[in-house]
Amino acid sequence: MYINPFLFILPRPPGQVVWNYKNHTQHELDLDYSHRLASLIYNPDLFDPDNIIDIQLLDAGILTVSKIDSPNWGWDELSKIYHIGTQDIPCEHIPKNIHEWSRQYLAHCSEVLAKPAPSTGRKQQPAGTLINLPAPGAMKDDSLTQALLKRKTCRSYTGAAVTLDEVGTLLYFTLGYLPARKDSHDDPVAPGLEARRSSPSGGGLNACEGFLLAQNIVGLEPGIYAYHPDEHALSLVNPLPEPALGQMLGGQHFINNLPLGVFITARFDRLWWKYEHSRAYRMAFIEAGHLSQTFQLVATTLGLNTWLTGAFADAQIETLLGLEGSAEQPLFFIGCGESDGHAMCQEMRDLLCGVSS
Ligand SMILES: Cc1cc2nc3c(=O)[nH]c(=O)nc-3n(C[C@H](O)[C@H](O)[C@H](O)COP(=O)(O)O)c2cc1C
């Protein structure tokens, strides 16, 4: 008999909660059950098939008949519990199409809005301490000003193709290693850590990587491609998923019309190498956020609208990207394409009209 490796135990007086953070189940144990579990953790061979507690612990998956492998994890348990514990969140019903998604999302928003919203203001400051700032002046680079003003999340795409040139520009300025930066280090840099991107990177490790979702790109077969930042090149990983990607992205089917997108992943092993504490886990997401914003500003400058999400079925996306059982994990998705500029998809707008009329 084995103890499930994906458990943590939380004191919740007078009992304790045994939390399976992989399959998202919790069991509250009283003193008898807690004592018995402590004995079995000490020696699983004490398992007694005639003991009702043992059988219940087995049925609950706290004990397992065969050994369950748990991934090698280079940080302490904290980030492992958080990372695995927030993966593949059970969803009662993933919307099968855009109409279902619209209805479900609207119902969710109505439920949220029925509760009082937290205050939007900053923490109350003493009266009279506000220092008004000058209105923003023109920046030297007008295209940056325009990109900042025009970036907008859109959920209504025409499906029109983009060119390979546009894809090259997007990937290069988001993820590519910039030769000019490599050759211009004024201070010594550790060998192997010279590569620089347009976005900053925790420890200069470039722990984040990207996979291109190519749905409608002129001159490129549809599929999932790994981007190689050093060579500024792609290699095919997998064909497009069936059913379409929206099913894996929380049922947000309106993105099936996006001509392209990028999954940002993090190589945790690179972060583990330099930073031993789980706190570095936060940095992976912050780096992904930088890359995501850069992608959006470049896309906006190219005249494309953008969309982004962190809501996806982790295990399915790992398989799609060929990363099962790997220390490289998908964190975020950003996409872009030609849009009518609406924040909401047509189906949601129809629903909203119906609701308000
Ligand atoms: C971390 C993060 C996660 C997001 N996830 C989603 C998502 O799952 N689906 C979606 O439609 N929009 C998502 N968005 C977009 C936000 O809804 C959007 O940024 C927000 O409504 C503000 O609109 P704007 O981007 O046009 O300024 C996400 C944005 C961020 C920064």
- Give the radius of gyration: 24 Å
CATH superfamily of the largest domain: NADH Oxidase
What number is the mean pLDDT? 94
Structural class: alpha+beta
Helix content: 25-40%
CATH architecture of the largest domain: 3-Layer(aba) Sandwich
CATH fold type of the largest domain? NADH Oxidase
Strand residues, percent? 15-25%
Q: Could you list the spans in which at least 5 consecutive residues all have pLDDT below 50?
A: none
Summarize the helix and strand pattern as letters: EEEEHHEHHHEHHEEEEEHHEHEH
Number of helices: 11
Query: Quick one: biggest sheet?
Result: 6 strands, antiparallel
Instruction: Tell me which ligands are bound.
Output: flavin mononucleotide
Write down the oligomeric state.
single chain
Q: In which order are the strands of the major sheet placed?
A: 10-9-7-11-13-12
Straight-line distance between termini: 62 Å
CATH class of the largest domain: Alpha Beta
Counting structural domains, the number is 2
Question: Can you characterise this structure?
Answer:
The protein is an alpha+beta fold. The protein has two domains: 2-70, no CATH class; 144-182 and 194-347, NADH Oxidase (3-Layer(aba) Sandwich). The chain has eleven helices and 13 strands. It has a six-stranded antiparallel sheet with strand order 10-9-7-11-13-12, sandwiched between helices. It has a three-stranded antiparallel sheet with strand order 2-3-4. A two-stranded antiparallel sheet has the order 1-5. Strand 2 and strand 3 (15-20) form a beta hairpin. Helix 4 (98-113) crosses helix 11 (346-356), helix 5 packs across helix 9 and helix 6 (164-175) runs antiparallel to helix 9 (280-301). The chain is globular, with a radius of gyration of 24 Å. The N and C termini lie far apart (62 Å). The model has no long low-confidence stretch (mean pLDDT 94). The structure holds flavin mononucleotide. Residues 152-153, 155, 252, 308-311 line the site of flavin mononucleotide.
